[in-house]
Records
---
Amino acid sequence: MAADPSPAPTSLSFPRSTFAKLTPGPFLHAHLKQNPPIRPSGRTLTQFREQQITTGSLTHSHGSAVVRLGDTTVVCSVQGEILKAADIPSPPDESADNEDLLETLGLLVPNIELSTGCSPAHLPGNPPSTLAQSLSWKVRTLLYGSEIVNPEDLQIMFTAPKIDEEDDAPVPEVKAYWTLYLDIMFISLDGNPFDAAWLAVMAALRTTRLPRASWDADREAVVCSPALEHYAHLTLHTTPVTATFAVFSTANPLKQRSEAESWVLTDPDTSEEEVCREALTVTVDGKRVLGIDKAGGRVIGMEAVEECVKLTFARWKEVSTILP
Amino acid sequence: MPLDTSTYSLARLRLDGRRAHELRRLSAQLHTQAAADGSAYFEQGNTKVICTVAGPSESKRRGGANSSEQNQDATVEVEVNFAGFSGTDRRKRARGDKRTAELAHTISSAFTSTLLLHLYPHSTITLTLHILSQSGSLLATCLNASTLALIDAGIPMLAPLAAVTVATTAAYADNEEEADVLLDVNEQEEVELPFLTIAGTGEGEGVRVLVLESRVQMGRLEGMIAVGLEGVRRVRGVLDGIVREHGERVLEGKVG
């Protein structure tokens, strides 16, 4: 029997799944109107989906993670490659700001692959969609902006040996950099791609182990030690955690604004994303807010944003203990 | 040289500790993507492949002139996608890479003769393969993954296709007569030894797919094919087990 938000002209009764397909908006509204409000998947308004993180499954990568957030599955692989300082066309200034060094040299390269058949909207064989490109950009901005990796951790230094006693102490110079390529591939998508992608990036970076690299002056090349004991974890300086919220609203240009009801749904899945016109993503680390991203919509106000930020801090506590 | 180490000549153990006729660990999951008509994730050792099936769906081409007498059967289109992290070097393959096109064509023709395509006239069945990790036996793994995905999609076929690779140690054996046939070749062995990929239904002696790209002595070939067919039978047994287990779980209502 269908729950009817408005009296139907004919007495038809649909099974649940048909109702969900025919009128997804009223279907979600019928669930949210209950007291307490509940979502079709059975979650509460502020409940995240169950997540599963598996690391180290890819053999050829320096770090990898497979993350499942409900039915959204994402694989992230981190591969390090050497960039010789001599190959950089316009080397940065000695006094260049550390913050910009990473970005100028492009040492962190994320790429999101959505056209894998992960959902009917993302069929394989197509060039990257707007969503894929904007997700790649968001991940990139967060990687550089959160200063999770310092350029010093990626530098390969070399100190020339002292030849004469009278010479000054040799200055260590940067001979090469590690460039980290982060390939994020969606295996299945059921809403909230950004949170899943970022969780995979964090898990992969935390378990990335790079070999010990040194500059060989005779060969003029970087040599890596193959010994497993010499592989070292990356030093991560922050632990950004993201949370995405969608807003479902019954606001209608034909109705009074005061009559509209709205609910903020945490970690939306595809069926909820399709009927929500407004979304908000908050990124926090510890006690700092690293970013808030909201594009469009007119329902969320000050209190709702603050509430979402509080929820994200709570999420941070939960996730930072789960991350490997 | 994978077999130069003393472990092989003395103890007959390969680099990864297997004997000549041992398969690597095969594991799979069906219906990994709810959005696709059929999907499967297949692992053969460290070679990992995801296959999704879309179809049968309406063909894009509208054969107005040639629809009546000409071939009306469905077509099988295959697309192979190498993930950047699949090989030791991070390399994005160009779209029109010939090697990839050849792989896709081999898989497509293998299934064109196996699937009952006359049941779906004027439609297209699209197979998309995502290679997550390459560690030898790529074509065989792709064929096995595609079989499972097609079974998950419910597309009828004459018999499931199982594939395996075999190599011969003839060039490196002390005594030519003692050359061994190795089953299920991994990366390092593929580079050094002549190997072939063979696929069949696992019943009888029929060979559905045979790809040999290296030089082998005539006398070795029969032995390799014989061991290959035995390997195909065992892989077919493994695939059957995987499908049955998935079926049991579906019946118990644990899978959607």
Note: The first strand of chain B starts at residue 26 and ends at 30.
---
Amino acid sequence: MIKKFDKKDEESGSGSNPFQHLEKSAVLQEARIFNETPINPRRCLHILTKIIYLLNQGEHFGTMEATEAFFAMTRLFQSNDQTLRRMCYLTIKEMANISEDVIIVTSSLTKDMTGKEDVYRGPAIRALCRITDTTMLQAIERYMKQAIVDKVPSVSSSALVSSLHMVKMSYDVVKRWVNEAQEAASSDNIMVQYHALGLLYHLRKNDRLAVSKMLNKFTKSGLKSPFAYCMLIRIASKLLEETEAGHDSPLFDFIESCLRNKHEMVVYEAASAIVHMPNCTARELAPAVSVLQLFCSSPKAALRYAAVRTLNKVAMKHPSAVTACNLDLENLITDSNRSIATLAITTLLKTGSESSVDRLMKQISSFVSEISDEFKVVVVQAISALCQKYPRKHSVMMNFLSNMLRDDGGFEYKRAIVDCIISIIEENPESKETGLAHLCEFIEDCEHTVLATKILHLLGKEGPRTPSPSKYIRFIFNRVVLESEAVRAAAVSALAKFGAQNDDLLPSVLVLMQRCMMDSDDEVRDRATFYMNVLQQKQKALNAAYIFNGENTHCAPSLNLRALVELTQKPFDMKSVPLANTPITEQKTEFAPVATSKLPEKPGPTRQDIYQEQLAAIPEFQGLGSLFKTSEAVQLTEAETEYVVRCVKHTFARHMVFQFDCTNTLNDQLLQKVMVQMEPSEAYEVLHYVPAANLPYSQPGSCYSLVRLPEDDPTAVSCTFSCTLKYLVKDCDPNTGEPDDDGYDDEYVLEDLEVTVADHIQKVLKPNFAAAWDEVGDDFEKEETFALASVRTLDEAVGNIISFLGMQPCERSDKVPENKNSHILFLAGVFRGGHDVLVRSRLALADGVTMQVTVRSSDETVVDIILASVG
Amino acid sequence: MPRSYGNANCPYFWSTCGHTVFQEPSLYTVKAVFILDNDGNRLLSKYYDKELYPSMKEQKNFEKNVFNKTHKADTDEIAFVEGMTIVYKCSIDLFFYVVGSSQENELMLMAVLNCLFESLGQILRKNVERRCLLDNLDGVFLVVDEIIDGGVILESDPQQVIQKVNYRADENPLSEQSVAQIMQSAKEQIKWSILK
């Protein structure tokens, strides 16, 4: 009898691995015995195992050597040893991509697949399909069809699963096997049923009607396989979502009925499907939640995990629905599986009352170090949500977060904590000092540049306005001494902000700045020099412009900064400074889009650039200057009409360009010479129309109108245009798209288009509004009081003003604290032409809302325009 | 304005909470299967999703990460690592893992793991330990191949799997083994029963 393994295995130490020191070349050498006659099944089997083991360990086989081994292996088909044959199939599958000419085994496999030995047939089909491509598939199609409906379950399953794998490659061929798959679906074997259902769905998934019919059939006839039930539930809930059918649909009834299935797997799948459905009411959720509640006390960890994870999701949208499970969740917080315990606690944090927060936080801190980063982030997010719900608990949370911040953890985790602390600071002014202190401590030993710069930026913004700003200086200057360039540069900027706002700190900041000017990095040195020079002027207006509201320049490349330094450096006596002011202001307005692009609702920073480029390519629009603002698109037609038109307004210094994006939804028409005729209500003058030459079916096209803004009356900022779509229609063949030669003119009335004051103002974020307010000065200040009778709450009033003026809310003044009767809203923007505009709006809630608006700008007309449009 | 929790901070976990991410109904349930020894070395592993950890290095990193997070808590049977749901089981000096996406039905993955474990228990005659597994590695490969095909659950009943594989474990009569080998395996058995 041959020993299964080589001698050296016995000699090697405890826990030896007989495969550990395998050499690829030695194994391939050994593979030569495949050619010996008679075949020795045991030895060959062992060598094949070694080859598969090596492949599994990631050993690389060259094409040549793999092909050689593969061809040698084909000889083993002569042996009738069952295990050896099965291992050959495995080798074929493993080598299908490495070896060449694997198709030579096709006939052997086809023979096995149709042979008498049932043990071979299933695996042979799977191996065969692995090496078959679309062209060869036709040759074995007949066998595949037979195999799918074979009475031996393993053969049928193998054929179905292999067909599923091949759908991606040869959809058209596999599609022809639908009837066979249909027959297999009514098999008694549960796996065959499942596989048949899976294949049928993949073949039909793009045909909603067919899917619906199939569901109908199977939900009525009932299936045996729990896997198939899970699949049916998924298909049903997808269909429900796509068709937006109500919860009275039979599909929903089916899913709900699965909650009473005898297999836990199916019950859980159904509960999970219901929980994930959009717009589920508490009543519909209740049965799903109660089965999940039962699972919470299951002895199986996987089931408890699944249940509590799903409940956690429910708690996000419907915390009240989960309250019933609080007791069960309480029992899980001491679960030995930390993932389950964490999920239970975070769920309770969402559903529990304020009084339970302390206890839960204590519980979770006892094992937070044992859970994985992913779950730590979950915990942080739960805390963040909790802080918004119970602002009074911020000291407990802050403490907890600072402890977490000290623990080890990856970047994602640390970032979540820092974000959470920052949001607490922003929400609760009382927590500011503690929060900043924790963050200061964190940057003392922080390996993540991104977080360090983010915190330094925050310190610069918030620190100078705290009661004792001096304590932050040490932390910031430590960064200058110890950290990388990016952090040092951020630290210098933060220092400058302290110097600019706190006169008593200025001398020490200047000393520190002096030392930063010796830095080895260009950017750090440039910033230090620049701030040093600005600070030395001791002028409030300069500080405001270049230090606290100079954020725009921060995101611009350092080149700009250097340009600024050069500009300011030479003429640095007092008188010449205001002169240098003008060109810089112009530069700043150019950066405005960069600043606004930080706003989340804008699709991307380059949107306006793209439009600018597109417009510049049209000869009629040359010489308009640079694009000032591009508005969001406005629909001028109802959805699902013959023609869909939306308009994007582009504002230039003295003109506006209206871009009409049109889509023709009629497949039997070709539109030509498409334009939108506009009739203004005010003194606006339409200069040019740029028509779209062709508008074929479903291909969007754009036409443009150029309008001159009235120059003699600059206060006329709003205007209504009545718009009509005019075009030449050519009927065409819906199939070929071939148009007739003759056409006729036609028109289509669109909705009116409004130009409002918001189209003339670009949002600009002023991080320090008070400083900006002082900088603009009260030369052109006007104030007026209005009564907003129709508005009932402060929130609504704030929302209305922001959307009406299209300006950027500053200092988070767009959030109205709860239970207050008055509020101040700060808005900043740049008016067309480059004038800064600031609006301070005091709101008081009485019977309706009273609003006192104060407007400042560098230009008087702008102030008048704003006030006139509000009134 | 209420802030949504499902922000982009955590790239995977919460992507499942919005109903925008909808799981496409599919038979491709299993993303990967692997068996590691008690040092975290790979004995067998199969990745069925080409996009998940395409390179060997990424696969081994993932396995290492999973192993570090799970080998201490061997009473647990489920974990969440790198955005994947992982069900696992350990036996003496072996760790069995089945990996699925975060949206996958955990109980389906559990069915696969149980089937794998019980089938191996049968072909290894209850000696589900490293040495025995390596001695019958061909049988182990065949069992895995019968349970999962390209990520699809092919069979979940261990009896069916055994029948299909029809594998006979190596039956070396005692006399064939050297005394040293018997001592060695006895020592290991004792060691593990003490360590557990």
Note: The two ends of chain B are 54 Å apart (CA to CA).
